[in-house]
Amino acid sequence: LLHGGDPDTALAQWRLAERDGVLGPVSLMARGALLARRGLLDEAIQDYRAALRIEPGRVASRVELALLYQQRGLTSQAEAEIHRALALDTGACAARVGLARMRSADGAKREAEEIYREALGHDTGCAEAHLGLAALLASGGDGEGALREIRAALASGLDPALLRAEPALRTLADCPEFSGSPTPPDGG
């Protein structure tokens, strides 16, 4: 129902299913993401916590929970959760990108840039790190650097729709990279 475009009915069905037992981690995370998009952070946090009690090794879920904690103003919980994610997978692109997003949201742009670059040093194909770095560079006025990262993100398999969804990249919307046909990173 959620993927079919009917989130309200999906929420109602999840409530009914909970009467019969515990939801699985995939359902909890999907519902948590929906609740977070709707601004219901406390409920979203509850769902992510419940999912992680069932499957504690999910790095991406820990990153999302850390970001939710941060949005909610729960800084110490956010830091603890992102460090759990990093500990689970020290080379994880997702955990490093999450940490960079947290630092950027806190205004520590230089530290965020270093973390994105560190993530790319471990995994040059990390499309999310390229995207995050592109947004950071674009917001700092480095359009050329942002375009290089956009090209690398697209070459790494990033969905071009994510470029159009990133507010910091809207100033670059007239560039060919936004058409969905990646160009080589050398510009040729």
Stretches where pLDDT is under 50 for at least 5 consecutive residues are 180-188
Report the total helices: 10
Report the mean per-residue pLDDT as an integer.
Answer: 87
Largest sheet, in brief, is: none
Rg over CA atoms, rounded to whole Å, is 18 Å
Tally of strands: 0
Estimate the strand proportion.
Answer: under 5%
User: CA-to-CA gap between the ends?
Assistant: 44 Å
How much helix, percentage-wise, in residues?
55-70%
Which descriptor suits the 3D outline? Answer: globular
Secondary-structure element sequence?
Answer: HHHHHHHHHH
What would the keywords be for this entry?
mainly alpha, 68% helix, 10 helices, globular, 188 residues, 0% strand, disordered C terminus
Structure overview:
There is one protein chain. With 188 residues, the chain is mainly alpha-helical. Helices cover 68% and strands 0% of the residues. The chain has ten helices and no strands. It has helices at residues 7-20, 25-37, 41-54, 59-71, 75-88, 93-105, 109-122, 127-139, 143-155, 160-165. Helix 4 packs antiparallel against helix 5. Mean pLDDT is 87; it is low at 180-188.
